Amino acid sequence: MSCICFGLKVRDLLLEQPGFPDLRVRWSPYRDTCHTVEWGDAAPEWWEDDAVFGRFYGYSESANTSFVRERPQTPSSATSTPCSPTAL
To answer: Which residue stretches belong to region Disordered (predicted)?
Structure first.
């Protein structure tokens, strides 16, 4: 979500619905990435590899292995410099 106000509104609407435990808005420190509304267990940290993300989101080990083999992480895609929310 490009505006944090939309994320807060979505979170507020979902608070009234069953099935959304531990609702939160996750602020993105990156200019090219939007804020997200999350619930349940927290996602892995950004520095984790793709296999860790695949396991968290329920992909099979064979799907994870295939994906990682076809998409190796290069140093430039493995890291990103965060920017301060006040710098926007």
So the answer is: 68-88
